[in-house]
Amino acid sequence: MNISWLRLMASCFAVFAWVASAECEPANDYKLSGPFAHDNLTVYLVHGKSGAGPVPLTLQEALAKQKVRVVETGNVNELTVENLADEDVFIQSGDIVKGGRQDRALTASLILPPHSGQIAIAAFCVEQGRWSARNAEDGKTFSVADAAMPSREAKVVMSAPPQAAPSLRSDGSAQQAMWAEARHIQDKLSNNLRVDVAEAKSPTSLGLTLDNEKLQRAEGAYVTALQPAAEREDDVVGYVFAINGHINSAAVYVSNGLFRKMWPKLLRASAVEAIGAGSEDVPPLAVEDISNFLQSAETGTTSQRQLTAAVTQETRDGPRSLYVETKRSEGSWVTRSYLAK
After folding, report:
1. Sign of CA pseudo-dihedral 254, 259, 261, 266
2. CA neighbor of 171 nearest in space, from 339, 335, 7, 338
3. Cα dihedral sign, 64-65-68-72
4. What is the mean pLDDT of residues 305-317?
5. Domain ranges (residues) in the chain
6. Residue 308: is it exposed, middle or buried by C-beta count within 10 angstroms (0-12/13-18/19+)?
7. pTM score, two decimals?
8. Would the CA dihedral through 165, 337, 318, 16 be positive or negative?
9. 101 with 131: CB under 8 angstroms?
10. Which residue from 120, 113, 115, 116 is spatially nearest to 90, judged by alpha carbons?
């Protein structure tokens, strides 16, 4: 079931030549607040100018309203998405869609314009073995996108430029790595929660694991403690999080409106990752450490991909971090992610 990743990437993206980074540093325009902590998870808020204009539907909202279709192609590492609405739909890299022939994690952040037509999007399977409809689900489409990938390691594999590790793309080992990481997440959660978090009807499904009742109760304590902090001010456009004193990643958005829509799902994913990590008695990092991480991540070697006719992805790949920015065709950015390696 593994396909040639190199062939997939060539079909999905037009990859431009690598150039030395000479861009401005977005982090210079941010202000940080925090730390806000619960147990082993620490959150720092990113404050900045909030972009004007309508806030797009999220993939989760659009699926619930039947305004978007996510469809199987018969290819493990590729799906198609289509916006049926009269407004933009935002897809976040790492969104997990459940259903189809196997649950998937989408690998690119996109803005789908109204009535977009079918657009190919690369994906990783996060459920090994199944290749048919699950119970009463539709084996051709996906109907739920209420979870995000709870793993920095998985997000680095998904976001790394193909040129940075061509063997991962060409021989299927990236998909193998994703399956292995899904199992690793399940094992860590089961160990720390002292319960088998695998769902009996599909034990390898990471998406169904995230629905585990005991996990959601543990996750809820983090959400209750941390979610309000980001909802008090209208200039919060992103967040950075650390687990046990180690910086994990950051997500920043063009507007407070889009951030607020994404925040609950992002926080739940961060909480799941923290639960899997186990707790250590480590003091929180200083705000200066977080600022230095953001600025350092923006200095890597730059490459660009044309994801769709209207969306470009810029990646800056450094020795200790990965920066990924999604832009509209006219050059305005939509979301930025910062991943520690």
Report:
1. positive
2. 7
3. positive
4. 94
5. 5-55+150-340
6. buried
7. 0.89
8. positive
9. yes
10. 113
